[in-house]
Write the structure tokens for this entry.
Amino acid sequence: MMRTVTYLILLAIGLLLPHFVYPVLLMKILCFAIFACAFNLLLGFSGLLSFGHAAFFGGAAYIAGYLIKNLELPTIIGILGGVLFTALLGWLVGLLAIRRQGIYFAMVTLALAQMIYFICLEAPITGGEDGMQGIPRGNLFGLSLQSDLTLYYVVLAGFIFAFLLIYRTIHSPFGQVLKAIRENEPRAISLGYDVSKYKLLAFVLSASISGFAGILKMLVFNFATLTDVHWHMSGDVVLMTIFGGIGTILGPVVGSTIIIGLEDQLADSAGDMVTVIMGAIFVVCVLIFRKGIVGESVALYQRMLGRKNLT
Amino acid sequence: MTKYKKSTLKSIVVASLLALGVQQSAQAQISDNVVKIGVLTDMSGPYSDFSGKGSITATQMAITDFENKYHPKFKIEMVTADHQDKADITSNKAREWFDREHVDMITDLVSSIAGLSAMKVAKEKNKIVIITGAGSSKITNEGCNDVTVHYVYDTYATGQGTAKAVVKQGGKTWFFLTADYVFGHSLENDATKAIKAAGGQVLGSVSHPFPSRDLSSYLLKAQASGAQIVGLANAGDDTINSIKQAAEFGITPKQHLAALLIFISDVHSVGLKQTQGMYLTTGFYWDRTPESRAFSKRYFEKMHKMPSMNQAGVYSAVMHYLEAVQSTGSDDTKTVMTQMKKTPINDFYAQNGHIREDGRMVYDMYLAQVKKPSESKYPWDYYNILATIPASEAFQPLSESTCPLVKK
């Protein structure tokens, strides 16, 4: 009950917010929130630290941009095509990467993502350093996306869809198996689960949703650039997830809101110092809030409840 | 019935008159009585030396001078940000400035990536951009639009002017070292055309990532090519590194370097010893006329450096924009653009200048040669001006333009 009320309040805030805050900023936050949630599905609930998620985020943006701009296909085909592409790419990368664990898994994903980065830099259709620019937003279900406010509600709907999908996945038997693998992989194997299959499916799912986030961001800003496929982007999403709280449902949303919001606020006043400030925040977070903001808050809340029950 | 008709008619007339009045007053008005100028520049990257803080200072000087001269009724404000030479950051910032901060005009825009991205946003939001820092000739060709002015230089002007002069001096065979993005490639293309037209030959080219600290492998390729001239189709720190590293590898003085775009700030940081004798094309040299000296000395007091052609150009561009706003009494994009294109530009910076229909500001450019250390008598005494390239020859002729705005 309590949980439903919280989510309804959040939904109401989401619907009203663009009238008070710059919608483009909100859309950016939502796109990164989807990205971080997708990443959290892998890191938080399956225990796989991928360091190459930018390849899915940016790769999908380029593919969708190509479909919409160069082939002049409708926006919806661009979105579906981009997601399909990342699902395939995720399957390929996953197939190779899940054979290894821990740091080796991270390195394999990073290496493959760098290959995608290089393709985006050199391929004739991507525009190299200039990126793919001037991609039209087009129409979705007969709705023109030209106005920022309309697009905001589309992005919000996309976010809710992705969020529910992840929520459902985590709370399904499939999600329980993923958690079992995270906690103790040999035991999961001994119980008869085909661990590789579960990991691969989680990887493909996470990659596809990341791609979806990348496509939405591309639609918001009308371009896909190398920044989206650069390994910094893979690092940013790790930061957002850890900052908000690994393995919590709302953590990545909080993390991306704070980090993107801070970047926006600091961009003018702090200039070069932004990265230093971000670094300092990250250090504080790792030292003091080991579970991230949401993780610590939940822990605090539970401690308080526990004490109350005792007295 | 007739009465009803009459009153309807009357209200239609009144309504249309009202609408007309509203429209007119909207045209002859300045939104919230503030003209806001955004300086979007490279504050920390490879191009910050010839733009960055200096461009902001120049903009501030232009605003102050304008206020002292005209005592305008409107307020002028300035906002600044670092575009980090990236497309997405530029686009975001430009969009935000136009949407949230009600910026009327954005200037500087130092890399071609930044310039081209900002132009697209400006077109969408119907606001003005005056590009001074970026040089790609794409800006006034296939990428052109009616809200953009390309003020200071482009790759056609500097690449062509310099390449022609070098071929004339006997540098017939060329090899290019090109920054791997739109600016570098346009510079290479424009120079190649000029070299071929002058009877020279291009043996090959190699692209290096932008920005690059270590250019050794690319320079060795240039050395192996055996070309007389190594053409540097890059800018800022990349050019500085190329010149320094070419000397370390012994490429110079056996082969000669030709920097297709070099600013006085680059010459200052490399030093005359390694740059002496280089030809370059520039729109501005501080020590050329009494007016340019007067401006540059005022600038020097603030920045302790002489202005580059870009920094001086920003001042001139902002002044030209503000004068157009003053004389039309409006900050409406179309009105101001028409006025700016109508008015010729003759100031300490530009001679015989005017803005063409493709957005290109054409004016007299100068062919210069870097002095020998022994010839340099006082600080910043770096160039000999060899020739004036008249406005009509310095820039790409309209007949060759691929800009759809040009009526042929």
